[in-house]
Amino acid sequence: MNVKDQYLDTASTRSFRSGVRPSKSQSGFNIKTRGQPSLSINLDNTIVQTIIPPVNNTLNGDNEDNVSLNNFPRLRSMQSISSIVSRRPTRPNTVADQLSVNTSFDPLIEQSFSYSNNIEDPSTRQAQDTAFNEEARKDLIDRLAQSIYSYPASLTGNSYGFKPVVSNEIPDVFINDNQTSPDFKSHSKNFFILTSAGKPIFSMFGEDKQIVPYMGIINTVVSYFQINETTNIRTIKLNKTRQTFAFTNKAPIILMAYSRRGETTNELMTQLDLLYSYLISSINERQLKRLFHNRSNFDLRNYLEVTDFDNLRQICSLLSNKLYPDFGLNALQCFVMRKTERARIHDTIHNLLINESKDIPRGTLLYGLILSHKRKMFKLCAVIRPKGHSLHTIDLQLLFSLITHQFENRDGDQELWLPICFPKFNSNGFLYSYIKYLSRSHANNSSQMEDTVLVLISAQKDAFYKLKTFGDKLWNKLQHDKLDEYFVKDRFKFRISDIQAPLVHHFMYKIKKYVQYVMPEIEIHNDDATKLTQYECKLKKYYGHLYNSVVDDTGLPINKTILNYFHWEEEEEGEEGEEREEGEDAITETQRDFKREKINMMGLIWITPQFELYLICNNGVNNKEVVLRSAKRIIGWCKKYESRLFIQEGATF
Amino acid sequence: MSNPITSIKLVLLGEAAVGKSSIVLRFVSNDFSENKEPTIGAAFLTQRVNINDHTVKFEIWDTAGQERFASLAPMYYRNAQAALVVYDITKPQSFIKARHWVKELHEQANKNIIIALVGNKVDILEDNEDERKVSREEAEKLAEEEDLLFFETSAKTGTNISEVFLGIGEKIPLKGPEDEHTNGGLNVTEDQRVNLANTANASENASACSC
Fold first, then answer.
1. Are A37 and A564 spatial neighbours (Cβ–Cβ below 8 Å)?
2. Can you list the residues of chain A whose pLDDT is less than 50?
3. What is the CATH classification number for the domain harbouring A451?
4. pTM of the full structure
5. Measuring CA to CA, how many Å separate A298 from each of A197, A207, A217, A463, B76?
6. Taking every annotated instance into account, which residue ranges of this chain make up the domain FUZ/MON1/HPS1 second Longin (chain A) (predicted)?
7. From the list B38, B43, B190, which residue is nearest A305 (CB)?
8. Model ipTM?
9. Are residues A542 and A478 in the same domain?
């Protein structure tokens, strides 16, 4: 694929300053979001398409803003290009010339790579956009200084010296809604699960006596649409208060999500699907139907156990408060190791499978994984799978959540034998997982533990001893050949500063054919858990907006190939933000930040049939050419190290 | 030369939250944690103990107490030589469940299986004797009728925990030096276990109560 500088977007300088006045309840300040799902380009023949997606009412978290988006004229292809040009009077009038203008930014970039502060080159400066004034340049240089540290050796694992951590002080343009008020209605997000008879099963927040009346209402609403419209209600939206209710009817189970966070119906529905899948993973659909057959009044809570509720709560919290790309991207993260190292591990597994076929007859083992587990997140170290088969990421996420829970405050020496239903594999049957902790080590410079876990999955419920024998042999072999060292310590974790991609704060890169993604390690000074959560929440929202800027109502990208920039900007006249409501310390704190630094955030989303790139820039970056260049550098870097960052084949049998 | 090693396959059964996993944790790691996560499925652990000149290797199946896993239980007790049926002395319901387990084991498990009835959480009585809801006499009566070992334990304080396992170890005929061969590793096959059980002398089943 020939990736040229031909990615344009229509609204580069035209700002939507018209009438964006978020309500005070939303935030104490005015934020303008400029999502420009304006234009997508077919990469192969560079035909400019003018698909402007239907703008969802909750797209940018601000309804009024959407109005302005909707009013934005639908540009035809060539118009859109010329419109950019005409808005920049200093620039020539053709596409080709514009590309040449782009190149004028090169010296700036090159110099910043060479760690030089001296970029006083008059000839290039003359060519700069007039808006690019002295002050902005200084600002840019400062920011570059933050993120241009580059250690090409970092991936080779021998540079544990000084490494500056890129500032994670990106501003929070969103409402701080992590309230811990005892009143469950004050939460900005909640999930409810009930039976079709209206009996409560689970709610993320709220005591029984508080939620029971709501269960009745939810049940009534769902039933009403079934009876009168013979259809299922999907969503109720209150634009004024930005409330969204999403429903999923999986009789005999009803699920509802409530959100005040500006999430789209589609996001909420996929979240509900994960919760339902969890339920099915502990009671499969056939059991569920049997339980409710002739007993529509059955109270499922008698059948579920503490573990299930804990796990549901855990999943809800991942969905609400953590950056959870495994789910968001529908992909898994892979443990970085050298290509040869991974190949040796996979070869060892493969050979053992063949040589020990009398211990473990063909058909016993369905699927196997070696995982690295840290901070409740899992990375794949090795995969053992039959040719041409793989498990759905949702199924694996359910398995991960079970493992996390099972091994919390547990003795690591034990082996587990877990029945689990993989809803995307077969929602009516159980598979059995042999789970063993292989080793445990301290992560670098922190108290965080890194664990290595072996999972072997079989369809036979009495295969435990076979799998155990195989697992023991495998682990002995790996230890004997000293291959275990490759994954007991995360030697190759990288930071954004390891890639020569200036101005980029954070990114996620997914290769579709592997259903795996990669992102820089999220690090917080001193491992402060609260700060980490806040930071992850922030990233989560930025990425959420980015993604929503390019999907249609069904949650699918509007086009096979998309490149889009997204802008979050603080309004100039933010005086109204000064009036703050009492008692909301969180908002006050954020406001203090705003006085320090004006919000001007940019993100980039790039979707092609091969990969997806999501990228968030440092605050104050508004030069799209530079950002695009950085994006390409990231893609180049990921391609270069593809066999390290991703499991390409696994041990297939 | 190392001691002869006998493997004892042991399964824990009982209602949810009576302390099965805690008993195992105390026995295996001499540890206790207050709010343990419930077990899902089953956990497999091993622990070696020296009894007289013998090394006994306990292969322990710590099963989930929850009702929905009950259908899996036969898989764990089918080849077991010993079972701990655990109840919570402060929960009468758990004792009823224990009766059911004893009945099921007698009907379906290995004929020679050694069953120990274990009333857990006696530490609660230290503060308040009124918390006891299952009387010692009632449990002893059941143990006598059904030919069970009987213990009252506390996984929290460690009271009587090792006694339970030692009591079981003593009841199971240990392998003489002539039987000693290569089953020291982890890879004890099913066959060896079954053979071992068959060599067990059925007449050993005295109605013993260690207390």
1. yes
2. 1-31, 35-131, 144-167, 573-588, 592-596
3. 3.30.450.30
4. 0.74
5. 8, 20, 19, 33, 30
6. 364-475
7. B38
8. 0.79
9. no
